[in-house]
Amino acid sequence: MLKIDIDFHSSLIDYSLTSSVISALDYSCQIVYTSIIVFLNKANSMILKYFSILFLLFITAPGLRAQCNGAAQLCTKRYDQVAYLTTHNAFNSDEGGFSLPNQTYDMETQLNDGVRAFMIDVYNWFGNTVVYHGTGVLGTSPLEDELQKIESFLAANPNEIVTLILECNVSANEIENAINNTGLNSYLHTHQSGLTWPTLQDMITSNERLVVMTDVDDASPSQGWYHYMWDIAVETHYSANSMADFNCDFNRGDSLNDLFILNHFITNSVLGTGMASEAEVINANPYFIERVQMCQSEKSKFPNFITVDFYELGDSKLVVDQINGVAPLSIYGLSSLSDEVAICPNPASDQLVIQSDVASFDNYELFSSTGKNVTSRTHLHKSANSEWTLTISSLESGVYIIRTQKTANRIIVQ
């Protein structure tokens, strides 16, 4: 929210936007917002301050309305016309304390990194409704704890839409109890069979920003929000043990269903667990985007749920942005990269050398493929005139953007 406090006696004005709201603004609005704040800090005239505040309200309000799942371009698209970064066995993470994980980070981190759909396995474990993969011996977590992370995110981010894809071994009533107990019932969307899906903006306006699907058809007439997955979606095969096993053939669900789940992960052939080394390869472009585009073309079907293990490895978020028609560089507020900077070696794993006669890297920013600022995890040393050494050893493998006031370049960490 925008907060403006005016003290008429001291002629002071306090004005601030919460960080989550600033991040929801279009990049151009962020620049204008920052410029006005600088001007307000320097302005001596109260009249100038008042007019500046009015203009600030004018430029931020439409900027906030324009964002739908992080991009203005998505607002007018229907739910079934949008791609969502989806995590396979989303809860089964190293950060969450699970053994043999499919993900590095837990669902709270995933949400903050841009994941918008979650595959979750639900079981009854000694009388408790929990999530686990394969066996509870490898780790469990109460379902309500995982759902609470989604509720907190939706409450703090009113322009975001989230999807739950459940492999369910408990009843619809048990799922409903967990939904109600965590407050997610106020966000539920019910899709009427035979009708078109609403646009993202319509879902945001009505605050119906949570879609729930299940692989068990046991919903009562009063549980219309609990969608039987194979009435509305179709998937590719989920049991690939190597890249050679990938194809675009449909598995469960009817090919005429609205939604398309494109499974893009490799699991251990014996244990059925995630493999980070394989994810690092298959999640990287150009292979990843080419496979998604091939399946889209071959099946004449838009891929909605692009499902991965270890989403932070490779280019998962960039692939989803590209399929959505959002310029991949837009998550950094950029329209193009620079060609006046030399970076070597690139890819690199420990250190790299940057050379440029046109830009200073003394004040640089480094962003991950999800748009997260990771500058603090690196160290820059000026080794000569127009030359800097950047230490990147603490970064995970993936694609990054290094930005200065004049330049922007891609760095690959291996």
Explain this structure.
By secondary structure, this protein is an alpha/beta fold. The protein folds into three domains: 64 residues, no CATH class; 255 residues, Phosphatidylinositol (PI) phosphodiesterase (TIM Barrel, Alpha-Beta Barrel), CATH 3.20.20.190; 82 residues, Sandwich (Immunoglobulin-like). Helix content is 27%, strand content 22%. The chain is built from eleven helices and 19 strands. The longest helix has 20 residues. The chain is globular and about 70 Å long.
In short:
With 414 residues, this protein is an alpha/beta fold.
Helix and strand arrangement:
Elements: E1 2-7, E2 12-17, H1 19-24, H2 27-42, H3 46-65, E3 84-87, H4 107-113, E4 117-125, E5 128-131, E6 141-142, H5 143-156, E7 162-168, H6 172-181, H7 200-206, E8 210-214, E9 226-228, H8 229-232, E10 233-235, E11 259-263, H9 276-282, H10 287-299, E12 305-308, H11 316-323, E13 342-344, E14 351-355, E15 365-367, E16 379-384, E17 387-391, E18 398-403, E19 408-413
Parallel strand pairs: 3-4, 3-12, 4-7, 7-8, 8-9, 10-11, 11-12
Antiparallel strand pairs: 1-2, 4-5, 5-6, 13-14, 14-17, 15-18, 16-17, 18-19
Helix pairs in contact: 2-3, 4-5, 10-11
